[in-house]
Design goal:
The chain is 29% helix and 22% strand. The protein has 490 residues and is an alpha/beta fold. The protein folds into 2 domains: 3-89 and 130-161 and 354-487, FAD/NAD(P)-binding domain (3-Layer(bba) Sandwich), CATH 3.50.50.60; 179-352, FAD/NAD(P)-binding domain (3-Layer(bba) Sandwich). Bound molecules: flavin-adenine dinucleotide (FAD).
Length: 490
């Protein structure tokens, strides 16, 4: 794709929502933004250097989502004799998950984020339409759908993670990817005021739920405000910003409808702060105060009664226990209590876990996630096994932005191994990015790495909410992902 085609695609997105930004405004922002310029350059085919290699070997990639397909594409671009197989069951595996937040707020249609896996299969890459049901890393093979054995010289595990709604009492089922069967989950999620943007159908239903809340607020006369509750669980999650983004967007929609004063918006995170990076934590806290949001730290959603619209949280804290004379310190006693909260609208961010087939096999860790050396992405036990994306045991790595850095590192290191080199040349530094949508029209671009310090790519205060990042988030990142990453070039 040429730079002009990418620009035209971005402007076509802008045209769909003239109420948010005109084409003229968008062009103005693009022309003054160094980031937009770099996106256009990075997403243009041929602009990212890939070093050609004659290395040979059979590469099997388990999972053809964002990480798996981007890796397959870049490998196909790099190897002169590629032998690459992707194993993926979901016909919509490459759909654009970051867009689910915008679908949830009624800014995009679900159809705008749906892409067919088969259209995005890189040329020369083989596809097995199925699920890996067993890993046998001692014998370099996997089993597909319980019957077909597939052997490999190098394997990349990119299965993403499971949305574990069933871990919350009162809800049922798990979801493995956007197009996977979600019927059991949808029996309770996506109706009667209980919503979740973490799967595509759930995101579309969330917008209906927000509209229902607005209607209810318009007719609401009592002294008590309606209650909108937003949860954040006690497990690692993909896109740590999404539970807050949907809260900010609900606030925007309520304001737009003139009923914000009728609804209390409360955030219930399991953790004890808004963000792991102190600078972003402080900025978010201020944004919450400015919008009159409420929050209750250390509350983990454990149960929902959909009939009475009651959410039950495990509230937890620590207290000083008995004094240990030998150690000369107080014991720490973990305390908890059950807290019931009535809701009119609740957004549930489900607990997440590694897929069972990974967690219960030799390639998984005790916690489930694939144990890789976090810099090289090579498995800690099996040197011909690699992992990236949401399933990899990499701190703070569960975003598309991390995948964009990881897949290049993984490929450089895997090819070096295939070429018989003993030194792995590339290292992932933990970079990740969270474009935190703070209203319709503003985003705080939180970039950071393992140092837990802001690592802004541009000389602008990263704690400020800006229009320019809205433009990036809403109009530029999708073309960059779909045309850039999925072709292995961005
Ligand atoms: C609501 C939401 C908002 C987000 N917002 C952002 C954002 O603003 N910025 C950002 O950078 N990221 C964001 N993300 C996160 C981003 O989408 C993910 O981090 C990214 O998709 C991870 O890629 P992946 O390939 O690891 O997993 P996925 O893209 O989920 O792909 C995993 C694939 O593996 C397949 N699979 C699973 N098990 C098996 C098996 N046994 N055999 C074969 N295949 C299997 C699945 O079918 C799936 O297709 C968001 C995600 C959500 C849900």
């Amino acid at each position: 794709m040429s730079k002009n085609q990418i620009l035209e695609e971005i402007l076509a997105e802008v045209d769909k929502h003239p109420e948010i930004m005109s084409r003229r405004e968008a062009l103005k922002y693009i022309s003054v933004s160094p980031l937009a310029a770099s996106i256009l350059a990075g997403a243009t085919v041929g602009t990212t250097a890939v070093t050609a290699s004659d290395a040979v070997g059979k590469i099997v990639i388990v999972g053809g989502g964002l990480a798996g397909m981007s890796t397959a594409a870049r490998l196909a671009n790099t190897l002169s004799n590629p032998d690459i197989t992707v194993i993926e069951p979901d016909p919509l595996s490459v759909s654009y998950q970051p867009g689910q937040t915008l679908v949830g707020a009624g800014l995009w249609e679900q159809s705008e984020i749906v892409y067919n896996r088969d259209d995005k299969l890189p040329s020369g890459v083989k596809l097995i339409k199925g699920s890996v049901t067993a890993f046998d890393p001692e014998n370099n093979k996997v089993t597909v759908d319980g019957k077909e054995e597939v052997s490999y010289d190098q394997m990349v595990i990119a299965t993403g993670l499971m949305l574990n709604y069933g871990a919350i009492k009162g809800l049922d089922g798990v979801i493995t990817s956007s197009g996977a069967d979600n019927a059991i989950v949808k029996e309770k999620v996506g109706k009667d005021g209980l919503h979740s943007i973490y799967f595509a159908d759930g995101a579309a239903a969330t917008w209906t739920g927000i509209q229902e809340l607005i209607e209810k607020a318009k007719n609401h006369t009592g002294p008590e405000k309606l209650q909108a509750v937003f949860t954040d669980p006690n497990t690692p999650i993909k896109c740590g910003g999404a539970p807050k983004k949907i809260m900010y967007l609900t606030h925007s929609r309520l304001e737009e409808a003139g009923v914000r004063d009728k609804v209390e918006l409360t955030f219930y995170p399991n953790g004890g702060k808004m963000f792991g990076v102190p600078e972003y934590h402080d900025a978010i806290l201020q944004q919450f105060k400015d919008r009159d949001f409420k929050w209750n730290y250390k509350h983990n959603l454990i149960e929902v009664d959909t009939a009475t619209k009651t959410a039950v949280f495990n509230k937890h804290w620590e207290e000083k226990g008995a004094f240990d004379k030998d150690l000369e310190e107080y014991a720490i006693v973990k305390m908890s209590e059950r807290v019931e909260v009535k809701y009119d609208f609740i957004h549930v961010t489900p607990p997440m876990k590694a897929p069972d087939v990974v967690a219960n096999s030799a390639v998984g860790s005790d916690k489930g996630w694939v144990p890789v050396k976090k810099e090289t992405l090579q498995h800690v036990k099996y040197p011909n096994v690699w992992s990236l994306g949401d399933v990899a045991a990499v701190p703070m790595g569960k975003t598309g932005g991390s995948v964009r850095k990881q897949y290049k590192v993984l490929i450089d290191n895997m090819i070096a191994t295939m070429e018989g080199k003993t030194e792995l040349p590339a290292a992932y530094g933990g970079y990740t990015v969270c474009p935190l949508i703070t209203s319709i029209g503003t985003v705080m671009l939180a970039e950071f790495d393992w140092s837990k310090k802001p690592t802004p790519s541009f000389p602008l205060d990263p704690t400020k909410e800006r229009w320019i990042w809205w433009l990036l988030k809403v109009y530029a990142l999708k073309p960059m992902t779909i045309h850039g990453m999925l072709t292995g070039r961005a």
